[in-house]
Amino acid sequence: METQENSTLHVPMLPNQHRSNDMDSHRPEQLSSLKEEIIVEVKKQLWLGGPLVSVSLLQYSLQMISIMFVGHLGNLPLSGASLGSSFASVSGYSILLGMGSALETLCGQAYGARQYHMLGIHTQRAMLVLIGSSIPLSLIWFYTSNLLILMGQDHEISAQAGIFNRWMIPGLFAFAILQCLNKFLQSQNNVFPLLISSGVTTLVHVVLCWFFVFQLNLGSKGAALAISISYWINVFMLVVYINLTTACAATWNGISKEALNDIISFIKLAMASAVMICFEYWSFEMVVLLSGLLPNPQLETSVLSISLNTCWMVYNISVGLGCVISSRVSNELGAGNAQGALLALRVMMVIAILVGTTIGLVTILVRNVWGKLYSNEDEVIKYVAKMMPLLALSDFLDGFQCVLSGAARGCGWQNLCVGINFGAYYVVGIPTAILFAFVLHIGGMKNENLVLAGALDGNHMWTCSSRDSTGYN
C-alpha cells in the first residue's frame, strides 16, 4: 500500500496538465458555491434594505412634511421654515447623526463577534455623549435668527427661521436618543420595529401638523412643535419595545455603570464620524444659506430649499442602503470574515445601480408637478421643474457614495472619510457653486451644481481610495 502511494506521488505530470485537471474538477463547484453565496447575500440585503430605506425616508419626512404645510402659508413662512430647517441640520441634526453613526462600527462589530452585552453598553455610552452634546447645540438653535443676520441673511426670513428653530429645540434631545436606538437595533439586523415605529410616527405627525398649523393657527411654530412631539413619540415606542421584547434580552441588560468607562475613546470615534458626515451634509445645506445672498432671496431660498429637501428625501434611500452595507460589513468583520464583507459590498454596488437608475427616471418624470406639493406660486413651480434633471443625476451618483461611505463606517475608517469628503465638497463643490452664482451671476440653478460637483468628485475620490486601500473595484 505504501509502495503504491509513493509511486503514485512520483508519476510524472506536466504542470499545465495538472493545473487544467485541477481547475476542471473544482471550477463548477466553486462557481456553484459562489452563486449560492451571492443569492444568500442578496436575500440578506433585501431583507434589511426594504425596512432600513423606509425608516430613513419616514424619519426624514417629518421635516419635509412640516415644510410642506408651512409652504401653503406663503413664500415668507416657507423661506423662514426652510432656512431654519437648513440651519438646524447644519448646527444640530447632522452633528448628532454623525456622532451616532459611531455605533455602526462598535455595535456592528460587537454583534458579529458575539459580544452581545457590549451593544447595550456602547448604546448607553452614546446616549450620554449625544444628550450632553445637545445642550450647547440647543443654545445655538435658540439664537438662530441672530446668527443668520450676522451671516448676512435677510432679516425677515431670519426672524421666521429663528421662531421655527426655537420650537424644535425639545425635539433635538429626542433626536439624539433616537439615533442611538436606531443603530442599536440596526446592528442586530432587527429592523422591523424601526419600520413600525417610524410609520406610526409619520402618520401621527401629519395629523399634528394639520391640527397645529391650520386648526390652532400656530403657523410655522405649529409645524416645528409637531416635529418635536413626533420625535419623542418615536423614542417612546422604541424604548418600550427594547425593554419588553425577548429579541433584545441578550443585548440590553438595563442601565449599567460600565457605560461610564472609556467614554473618551467613544468621543474620539464619534467626533471623527461626526466630521465625516458633517463635511458632506454641511455642503448641501450651505447651498440654501448661499441662496439667501442672491437677488430675490425669497424665491431663490424657497426653490433651492424645495430642491434640496427633495434631494435629501431621495438621498435617504441611499442612506438606507448605506446602513445596510454598514451592518453587513461590520457584522462580517466582527466575525472575522473579510471575504464575506467584500462580497456584501460588491452585491450592494449592483443594487445601488438599479435603485439609482429607477430614482433618476422617476425624478425626471415628476418634475412638472413636484413643486405643487410645496407651493401655490407658478414661478416657484416652474423653477423647481428646471432643477429636477440636475437632481436626478445627483441622486444617481449619491447612491454609490452612500454605499462606499457605509462600508467605510463598518470598517471603522471614519478618519479616511474625513479627508475624502473635505476634498470633494470644499475643494471642488463649494468653490464651484460660488463661482457660478456670484462671479458668473448665473443664479440659483447653477448654485445647485454644488450637489453635482460634490457627488462627481466624491465618487471619484472614493473609488480611488477604495482601490488603493482594499483592492475594491
Structural overview:
The chain is an all-alpha fold and 473 residues long. It has helices at 2-9, 15-71, 75-100, 102-112, 117-142, 144-150, 155-166, 169-186, 192-215, 220-244, 263-291, 297-334, 338-365, 378-411, 414-439, 444-447, 449-470. The longest helix has 57 residues, at 15-71. The chain is built from 17 helices and no strands. Helix content is 84%, strand content 0%. It has one domain. Its main location: membrane. This is Protein DETOXIFICATION. One of its GO terms (cellular component) is membrane.
What is the tally of helical segments? 17
Residues in β-strands, percent: under 5%
Determine the fraction of residues in helical runs and give it as a percent range.
Answer: over 70%
Shape: globular
- How many beta-strand elements? 0
Q: Strand pairing plus helix content: what structural class? A: mainly alpha
Question: What is the mean predicted local confidence, pLDDT?
Answer: 81
Distance between the termini: 50 Å
Along the chain, the helix and strand elements come as HHHHHHHHHHHHHHHHH
Largest sheet: none
Number of domains: 1
Radius of gyration: 25 Å
| Low-pLDDT residue spans | 1-25, 444-473
